[in-house]
């Protein structure tokens, strides 16, 4: 009877243990389920965050990309893909010189690390648009816990540069035009004074001595006046010709 | 003895069950631990993704923000915070008119939904920089599974506009200058022809009839020549005066 009692006690113990173990199992299962819900929420959040990041960089007309300290692309936006007529898969992991970027020399890199932003003007040869002038801004950022990744934003400045150049050349042309007028007035004014002086002196001579002169001498002065006038008419014709060439 | 055998069988069953339950418990615990590691990794990833997003939008000099369909800010970058001299906390949840943005009217909004991008030129009054001219690009995006959120990117175009205006006014001035020269040459050329014609005709008359004329009549024509010359000298002086005023 004693053995039987022992057995019964063991059974009760085992039953209690089994219940406890079952409870612990259910508890653990519950913990897992709760964590699984949190995990799914977090996964959804991460997906949204990635989507938002892509939306933000892909809506930009600027070339935006991140490369590691070995100059290999780890992120590129749609603008890069479209302008270089390629795909994200083809670019990721490649060195950035495949897009024609200058390798930064050591001095600019150390400057970049110190100042954390470096702005350069570079020409890029785009397969879709030819050679364009870019303002490239490089920022040192942290990416997946690695420091010294570089975020590059390239803004196409070609049209701005063209406008600036047009403005400069227009200013220069204007200055040239002003100088031309000034020269022209100066020369005209001096070139006209000579024949006018001639006419005046001949007229004065005719006035004073004409009546005592031989016909020949008077004729000489009248011809002088006439040729001076013709010279001035010729200059005026040249003036009109000049006007057509401004 | 039969009862005792039954008890022994039950004990073996219970022990087996307890072992199984323990195994299931351990399995569940293992699943939980594995999920917990994945959860932590994901959490880290989300943190990095958020950090990357902030780094990308915060390095931009452009104003970048997202507002919901009620025009309330749900994300703003550092440029907004700095230019408006405020903080992210103060702006989030506020309506975007606090920054002086135009409320979009219904027609532009429906256009925005159809075309998914709307570009406008707007003036913004910045507390730090006064009134500046912005090109504002609005994109309809999905944000936290809500559709019809708006991503706005505002690029300060003031300096470009100024350059364009300078170029325009410089072009206009140049055209004015050309017209001025043209007018000036035309007028000069015609104004000079009249006295020259007078001189020529008086000289011709003197040449043909001078010897038969009275002294008085000859003097009249010589004076006519002289006053024509004086008139031209005066015009030349005015020309030099004009030059100083170009």
Automatic annotation (TrEMBL), chains A, B:
It is a multi-pass membrane protein. Pfam families: HisKA, PAS_8. Keywords: ATP-binding, Coiled coil, Kinase, Membrane, Nucleotide-binding, Transferase, Transmembrane, Transmembrane helix, Two-component regulatory system. It catalyses: ATP + protein L-histidine = ADP + protein N-phospho-L-histidine. One of its GO terms (molecular function) is ATP binding. It is found in: Membrane. Its main location: membrane. PROSITE patterns: PAS. One of its GO terms (cellular component) is membrane. Gene3D superfamilies: 1.10.287.130, PAS domain. This is histidine kinase.
